[in-house]
Backbone:
């Protein structure tokens, strides 16, 4: 029996292509990381309305997070990460969430493993 | 399908991408950090204590997850997804 794969629509990463080379280096301190997250939040806020109404998977938005280096905030410097503590990670999460139109309160934040 | 906030996706990514730091050996933790950070991977997770468990069976070199998950954060768009199950 053939199986069918349902392909869920997703947002198009090319809408953020201009940001691929916008950020050449990772921030080096908390202030820098918070500022980076605020920049991303501002970009996201530009189309938060249409995105919320659409049900597309956030492929473009994840691409934007990648361009900004935010996925690496906690990672070891030896592998190209920001090696920041969780306290800085939380701040970046909060800042990005502000651009999303969501209040940055959700259950997970108090229970990061080992924190 | 529940619409996720991007802040939440970042939060879950940071959580799942550091899972090996907590539950893995130092060597495993280091290996996963190298994989995830040097490739700039986005990590999702299908782990929720309120959700049904996946059954794990061993297939020689591989382990096989079987079952159905109701909650999956970023699974469709993630480079890596963390799964949990019981043997």
Residues:
């Amino acid at each position: 029996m053939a199986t069918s794969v349902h392909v869920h629509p997703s947002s198009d990463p090319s809408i953020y292509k201009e940001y691929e080379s916008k950020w050449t280096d990772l921030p080096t301190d908390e202030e820098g990381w918070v500022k980076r997250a605020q920049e991303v939040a501002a970009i996201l806020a530009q189309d938060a309305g249409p995105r919320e109404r659409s049900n597309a998977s956030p492929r473009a938005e994840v691409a934007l997070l990648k361009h900004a280096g935010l996925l690496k905030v906690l990672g070891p410097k030896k592998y190209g990460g920001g090696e920041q503590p969780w306290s800085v990670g939380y701040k970046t999460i909060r800042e990005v969430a502000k651009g999303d139109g969501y209040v940055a309160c959700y259950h997970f934040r108090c229970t990061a493993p080992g924190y | 399908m529940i619409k996720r906030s991007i802040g939440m996706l970042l939060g879950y990514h940071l959580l799942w991408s550091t899972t090996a730091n907590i539950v893995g050996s130092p060597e495993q933790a280091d290996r996963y950090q190298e994989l995830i950070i040097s490739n700039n991977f986005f990590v999702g997770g299908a782990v929720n204590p309120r959700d049904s468990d996946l059954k794990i069976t061993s297939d020689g070199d591989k382990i096989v997850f079987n079952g159905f998950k109701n909650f999956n954060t970023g699974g469709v768009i993630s480079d890596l997804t963390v799964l949990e199950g019981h043997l």
Notes: The helical segments of chain B are 6-17, 19-23, 26-38. Chain B touches chain A at residues 1, 3-15, 17-19, 21-23, 30, 33-34, 36-38, 40-42, 74, 76-77 (CB under 8 Å).
